[in-house]
Every structure is written in structure tokens, then in C-alpha cells.
Amino acid sequence: MRSFNKSFFFYCVQLLCVFVLGIYLAIFGQWKLETNLLSLLPTSSNDQEIQLAEKALFSHKEQQLVVLISGDNSISAHQMLQHAINEIAQISSVNLPEPSLTEITQFYLPYRHNFLSQQYLDNINNKQELTRLFTSQMIELANPFVSETLSTAPRLNLAHYLQATLEQMEGIEYYQGVPSITFQQQRYLFSRLALNFNGFSLKLSQELSVELQHLFKQIENTHQVELLYSGILFHTAESTTQAKNEISTFGLLSLLSVFLLILLVFRSFLPLIISSFVISIATFYGLTAVFVFFEKVHLLTLVFAVTLVGIVIDYCFHTFVYIGSVSQDTLKRKHTNISQPLILGFITTALGYFFLVFSPLALLAQVAVFMIFGLMGALFSVLIILPRFKSLNKFQVTSSILTLSQRCISLLQRFRYIRIYIFVCVVITLLVMFFKLPTVFNDDIRLLNSSPTWLITQEKRVAETIGYQEITRIVVKADNRQSLLENQEKVIDKIRAEQPLLLIKSIAGLLPSIERQQEYFRQLNQADKAGNFVELLAMSGMSDPILPFTPLTFERFMQGPLSSISQLFLAAYPITLPNGSVSEKHALWIEVSGGALTVDLRNWIEKNSDSKLYNKADDVSKVLSYYRTELLFLLGMAFVIVALVLTLKYGFKSGLLATVATISSALIALFSSQLLIGYLNIFNLLAVLLILALAIDYVIFYQEHGLKDRTFIAISLSALSSALVFGVLMFSATPAVNSFGLTVMIGIIAIYILAPISASKSQY
Amino acid sequence: MTDILVFIKKSLLLSLVLMFSTAQAANDKSAEQVISALNPVNIASGTFVQRKYFNVLKQPIISQGEIHFEKDLGLLWQTNKPIHSQMLLKNSGLYSDDGINPIKKIKGAGAVASAMMSTMMGDTETILQEFEIKSTSKNHCVNLIPNDVQLSKIINAIELCSKTAKLNSNTKQNNILDYVILHEKSGNRTEIQLQFNSVNVLSEEIRAQLQ
Fold first, then answer.
1. Is residue A722 very low, low, confident or very high in pLDDT (cuts 50, 70, 90)?
2. Which residues lie across from B63 on neighbouring strands?
3. Of B149, B3, B122, whose CA–CA distance to A180 is shortest?
4. Which in A193, A367, A392, B156 has the greatest CB count within 10 A?
5. Which among A142, A150, A174 has CB closest to B9?
6. CB B210 within 8 A of CB B73
7. Distances in Å between the alpha carbon of A353 and those of A350, A359, A371, A691, A754?
8. Minimum Cα–Cα distance from B115: chain A residue
9. Nearest to A35, CA basis, from A225, A308, A306, A243
10. Which DSSP string corresponds to A228-261?
């Protein structure tokens, strides 16, 4: 009795601590709710530095929206859009300053001998061709580069260089002064808008998304134009709405069905109130732990966390049924009868999740922490608080339920007699499925995408129109700026050598490395000494003495008229060195279009430690594939642990049967899922981990208590409630969530049938 | 930035197209009315002499060549002296060919090319969108002042002057532009003198290049 009070005191103290901590963290904590799918990805990778470089280069794109307008009245529609955008505080138009040609040529003039276009370079030792090149520029219908540079750079090498380089940088046309793109003979006016807040900010995203969509519709109707738009903002808003709906709908449905079940079985509100209390405590524990361990809580974590209800209610049912079947005295004496299997069940479940805590996939780690601490809170409450409710042993399971359970038990008893055959059949069937059913894994990023079809279709149309789908981006990094420019040239030279027809957009032309400028200078100087420019200079009657080499440095370039354009391609990012000091690194990106890179070239870029192909979707799929493989290994380990624990605890024969029941239910769930959805993904495997956690609870209870009515009823209620909770997830719009729900559902049905017939003890 | 270059080239080509059009020019009509009254021709062929006057050079740079136009195909501007080069304006865009390197498509030509084609088909609305039309002190001359801000940073005006001539046997005596002057902001200017021959159909070779 004393120890009972002591544990109650301990329970109250720890509950108070958790409450204080939880409320403190909820109000004053630094946690943030996340919807960005990419934030689910592991922070460690083979090349974390490249990831940092990618983030530095492309994170601003999360803040941007693209709007395309086409139709006869596109100009007036564009004006209406610009006017409306000016009125919205959270968004603004992105307009790049376009320096004048005079500004550009004046800036490059002091360095005019450091620049040679490819055509000049190819003909630098051919006097006649150089003259021909010069003449062709001079007679061109109108060439502003020649007009601007002839007086100060009369070899016209700078005019040709700037013309060729700036032409490569151009991608957008102008229609009546508005940037435009022509796609399939249709002109689209192009607007880039920037958010003045983080694109993943949930509330603001939802509000602004609604406002903008209303505005877009208004523009379409007023001017009879087609308006396409894309941006993370809309996905964030849609995902948030989707997740919020699912959490509230699924949560409510799960709770309602479980409560109905309790009322139906016990015909009393007390178990309902107690269950709600335990579920609330468990949820509070789980959330507090997540707030403690993670700064950002992903919305998808909370969707998965609904599963806590399913397991917590198991604990409640076992306790209700057990307490209801014994006297208060017996309860005090033989408390271990219920506590032992509950603790054992908790340990195995928590162990399963424990492995996931260290997963670099943030979602897994968050779900695992939430579940472990949530279950711990539930266990404390069930073991310490529930036995104190004296009235609990007054209510009994209704007689009709008892009768039904006894009938089921007698049926299961018959199965028990032939259980060896049943298990052999199950094992053979699984083996046949394993060898005959080709396992197809799907690691596509779209599994995580809950955006509606119309938004994805619109996104695709925008990408197609602006030619984004045909573009390959390459990220280049280096320790310092000059090395960065040299690395960039190395990559571009390689592409030009292997696939000369590809179009390359980069800042390499605007700012060659000092090494390359020196090389151009050397070649021009050598050609000058050889007299290759005499004839063409004579044509203009001008002189152009070559002065000592003066490089155009990075720092000087960034003070020039093209720095704002170049900044779109460049970024610097800090990196922490092993000694703890922080060093600044540099990165840039190159855009390749006009065809796909060959496999050899792709491999060369990937193997080069300073460059990487930028494809976030592909990266995510690779990560999912990697963790799916890891998870398979983890499941293998879990199967071994389950086998060892059960065999050591219950002996070879009983342990083996319990193991076969547990593992078979997991495999049945997996194979059936593949048959139903056509493939398997990481979320099916995650579901198997949960099945193992639930299955081990069921087999332990049957092994401990035997196939008797109170165990059967408790497990039936557990299974039914879990099936109701997880079954709901099958209706989620996110493929990841519905895959999870389906597999768990099948697994529960399988273990519900296999666990009782594997029990070593019969009724007593 | 190269859009400016492309724009200049094509604006000039546009003005060349204009000069193939028949005009009921009359002194009492405004320049806009003159342009609005243009009627397209289907085929034209001729020669040109171009003189480029640079502020820093004492003598102009002279080049000469041929010009060919067919409404449904496009326009070929071919320089024969001092070197051979071609510029082709087709439905698919603007291309340059120096006879040595592969034919190069001049990027960013879509919008202007479509404006060009609209003009060829008699869509004067497009011309009026791109330029402001102003009359000059000279008889039979008009100035095209670019509306585009970037273009106006480089070009002051394109001056088009016409004379009366008969393009081919199927048409009446028309007002045909025979002189084009491109006035650059820098003070440089390009003068082009055109001479059209009577032609009913373009040669197969030229048609093939434009296709």
C-alpha cells in the first residue's frame, strides 16, 4: 500500500514536471511548424558542403512566384497585376536593373586585351580571318557594340566578346517593354514576384495564396486572358489546408470510433473518460518530447502521430478488461499480472521506435520520439492511476460480447489444433510470393506530395512554357572566388568539348578567371607582335597599344554594372571546419539547355568533387531509396530481435510459433500492399515497424495469459480500435500516409488471427 | 542586352519591309496616316549599297549586296562585298550566316519577328506599337522613333525616304522607299540606298534559303 502511494506521488511529480515543461515550451519555445517536404530530408549526406552550396544558391527561389499571362489583352492584364501587387505588402515585383550598353562597354574597356571570343581565339594566328571577322562586324547593319567600342578598342575583340557573351546570357524577350516568352507560337508575359516573408510560413502563405488566387481570377475575367502561376507559396498553402483537414478529420473520426467501441463494449462512460484522459496525457508527453528535441515539427509528423491513439487505447483496454475481471484485493496482490506484459510490450515497441530516433530522416526521428514518450506517459498512467479507480472493477464486459468472444475462442481453439499446418501454409505462401512476386520499390518524391492535381498540372505547364524542364543546372563550389571561376571554366570546357551544341548560360563569360584572362592576354599580345592585327587596324586607321596585363578581379567586377545579374548565379556560404572555426566558401551555378547531358558527362560532373548536378527531386528520391534500403536492414534486425526475445522468454516451440506469427503478419502486410498498390515504398516499411510493435504486444499477452476470454476481448478491442485509427489513414491524399495506413491495417488483421493460434497456453 | 542589337537589325528590316509597301502618300496626310495606308506587296527583289559613318573614321565603311522578300517566306539580306554574309528573317526567327560558321539563330527574336511578320501581312498596328511615326522636313521621308526604352538608348530614329516606282508587272506605279538612314545615339549613322528590280517570282535558290 505504501509503495502504491509512493508510486502515485512519483507519478504526480513527473506529470507536473512534464506539464510545466510542455506548457513552457509550447508558449515560449523556439519550435516551428514545418510543411516544407524537403525539410524532412536528412541533414547529413555524402557531400554536406554541396547541400549548403545549393541552399545558398537556390533558397531565395522559395520566396519567388512566377506568373505568365497570355492573350490579346495581356499587356493590360499585366498592368493590372503590377498595380495590384504594389498594393499588397507581403509581395513585390522583381525587376532586375538593366545597365546600358555604354555602362557595360566603359566598364570593360580598361581590360579590353584580356577578352577573346571563341571565334577570335580560333583565328588569332590567322591574319586574313581576323581581318574578315573585323570587317563582318564593321558592315553589320547596326551593331551597337562596334559603335560603342571602336574608338577605344579598335581591334573589335571586345565588341565581339561582349556581343557573344551577352547573347548567351539572354533568355527572355521583351514585348512592349515587358519580359515575355514565346512558347508554341503563343506569347506569355512573364512576371517574377518575391515574397517578403518565408514561403513556408503557414498562416501567411494560406492568407496570401487565397488573396492572390482571387486576384488572378479577377484579372482573367476582366481581361479575358489566360494566367498561369507557380511557386512554393501555393503548395505550402494547399499542403497546410490538406494536413489540417486530415488531422482534424482523422483525429476526430479515430476518437469517435474508439469512444463508440468503448461504449458498446462496457456500456459505461467511465472507461471513455479514463481513455480520453490517458490519450490526452500520452499526446501531451509526446508533444513535449518533440518540442524538447526538435526545433521544427513537421506537419506530417502530427499526421503519423495519430497512430499513438491506437496503441494507447490498447493499454487501456488490457487494463480495463483485466481490472474488471479481478477483485480490488487481487489487483493489489497480483498487479504484476497486468503490469508485466504491458511493460514488456512497451519495451519492445519503444525499442522498435528507438532505432528510428537516430534516423537522419527528420520525420522518422520525430515520429519515434513522439511515440516513445507518448507511450511512456500512457504506461505510467495505466499502471499507476487506473488501479486507483475502485469503480473500474464494477463494470463488466456485456454478456453479448462475452458470448461472442467465447464463440470466437472456440473457433480459434479448433485452429490451434491444426496450427502447425496453418503456419506451414502461411510460410509456404509467403515464400512463393517472395520468389514469384517481383518486388517493385517506388522512391519517387511525389509520394510525399499532397498538392492537388490542378496545382501540379499548372506547375508543369509553367515549367514547360519557361523551358525549365529542358534545363540542367550544375552547382560548382570552391574555397575561394578565383578557384570557383577556374572550376566553372573546367566544367564548361568539358561540356563544350563533349557536347558543343549545348547552350550554356553562366557568368564565365562576364568574368573569366584571372588565369584565363592572362591566357587571352598572352595570345592577343603574341598575335599583335606577329603583326596579325596590322591590316585590320589599318582599315580603321587607329592604334591600340597593348599595356601591361591588368586583371579584372572579382572584387572589381562586383562593383561593376553587371554585378546584380551575376549575383543571381553566385553565393557565399559559411562552413564549420573540424577545428570549430567558420570559413566562407563560394558557389555558383551553370545552366545547360538545348539537349540532355550524356551519361559520361553526368558521371564526370558527379565524380568531380567540386561540381554536382542540381536536381532536388532526384536527390530526394535517392535519399528515400537510401533510407528504404537502410530500413529493410533495420527490419531484418528487428525480425532477429523479435525471434530472440520470444524464444528466450517463452522457449523454443512457443517462441518459434510466436515469432512466425509476428513476422508472418508483417510480411503478409507487405506483400498484400504490393499486390494492391503495385509497388512498395519506405512508408510501407515504416508501417511494418508499427505492425511489429503491435504484434509483439498481442503475442506477449496471449503467451502470458493464454487464449482466454478477457485476453481475447482486450486484444480484439485493441485490434479493432487500431484498425479504425490506421484504416482512416488510407483515405489521406498523401500517398505516403495512405500507403502507411493500408499496410498497418492489413498487418493488424493478420496478427489478430495468427497471434491467438500461436499462443502456447490454452484457456484456464 | 543583345536584344537591342537584334531589335536594331530587325527594326531596320521592318523599315525595309515597309518600303516595299505601296503608299498613297500625300502631303496633306499625317505620317501616321501614311503608314496606316500602307498595303503589303507579296514579292520584291533588289540591291543595296550601305555606307556606315563612324564618328572616329574619316571615310564611311561601304558594303553592298542583295535583298529579297516574299510575303509568305520572309526576307533575305545578303552582303556580297567586301565579304559575303547573310541575314535571314523567316517565320521561325532571325538567322545569320557568314558562309563559314554554321547558320546561327539570333536568340530573343520571337517578339520582334512576329511583329515583323504582322507588318508583312499588312498589320500596321504592330508598327505603330513599336515606333512613333514622325514626318521630316524632307519630302517623301518619315522618321520611325522607337518606343522601346532600351532601343531608344541606342537609336534616335530610322529615317525612311521613298520614290515613285513600279515594282513588278502586276502592280501599278507605287511610292517605294529607296533610302534608309539609321541615326544612332552615338552620332554614328548608317545610310542604305536601295534599288529594286522588276520581279514576279523569287529564284528557287533564294526560296530554298528562306524555307
1. confident
2. B50
3. B3
4. A367
5. A142
6. yes
7. 5, 10, 7, 12, 23
8. A175
9. A243
10. EEEEHHHHHHHHHHHHHHHHHHHHHHHHHHHHHH
The DSSP result for A710-736, as a single string, is HHHHHHHHHHHHHHHHHHHHTT-SSHH
Say yes or no for a CB contact (<8 Å) between B3 and A180: no
Q: What pLDDT was estimated at residue A548?
A: 92
User: With contact defined as beta carbons under 8 Å apart, do A529 and A513 qualify?
Assistant: no
Three-state SS sequence of A93-119: ECCCCCCCHHHHHHHHHHHHHHCCCHH
Residue B110 CB-half CA count within 13 A: 18
Mean pLDDT, rounded, for B32-51? 69
Quick check: A274 and A259 in contact, CB under 8 A?
no
d(CA A287, CA A303): 13
Q: What's the residue count for chain A?
A: 764
Per-residue pLDDT tens digits for A41-71: 555 444 677 777 877 877 777 778 889 999 9
Give the model confidence (pLDDT) of A192-212 as tens digits. 888 877 655 667 788 888 899
Residue B175 pLDDT greater than 80, yes or no: no
For residue B89, give the H/E element and its range: strand B85-90
ipTM: 0.79
- For A40-55, the DSSP string reads GS-S--TTHHHHHHHH
Closest CA to B1 of A217, A634, A99: A99
- Tell me which residue has cell 470466437: A408
End-to-end, the C-alpha distance of chain A in Å comes to 29
Q: Do A101 and B188 touch (CB under 8 A)?
A: no
Bridge partners (DSSP) of residue A449 are none
- Is residue A322 within 8 A of residue A718, CB to CB? The reply is no
Interface with B, mutate which of A72, A147, A182 (most B CBs under 10 A) = A147
Cell 577556374 belongs to which residue? A486
**Cell numbers at A346, concatenated:** 512497451
Say what the pLDDT of residue B26 is: 37
Enter the C-alpha cell of residue A618. 532526384
Nearest to A660 by CA among A639, A688, A684: A639
| Over residues A602-628, mean pLDDT | 82
Across A633-651, average pLDDT:
85
Round to whole Å and give the CA distance between A106 and A562.
Answer: 12
* Order of strands across the sheet that contains B173-184: B104-106, B93-97, B85-90, B74-81, B61-70, B43-53, B189-197, B173-184, B155-166, B141-146, B131-135
Q: Is A180 left (phi over 0), alpha (psi -120 to 50) or beta?
A: beta
- Residues contacting A105, CB < 8 A, separation 6+: A145, A148, A149, A158, A159, A162
C-alpha grid cell for residue A670?
507487405
CA distance A174 to chain B (A): 7
Distance from CA of B22 to the nearest CA of A (A): 24
Measured between CB atoms, which of B8, B52, B148 is closest to A174? B148
Q: How far apart are CA A338 and CA A343, in angstroms?
A: 9
Alpha-carbon separation of residue A276 from A217, A259, A318, A382 (angstroms): 46, 9, 15, 12
Question: Count H helices, E strands: chain A?
Answer: 30, 13
The DSSP 8-state label assigned to residue B169 in this structure reads T
Instruction: Give the closest-approach CA distance of A299 to chain B in angstroms.
Output: 44
What is the C-alpha to C-alpha distance for residues A532 and A328, in angstroms, rounded to an integer? 109
Cell numbers that stand for A78 in this block? 499585366
3-class secondary structure, A608: coil
> Which tens digits make up the pLDDT trace of A699-720?
888 888 788 787 888 888 888 8
Contact A204, A489 (CB under 8 A): no
Amino acid letter for position A62: E
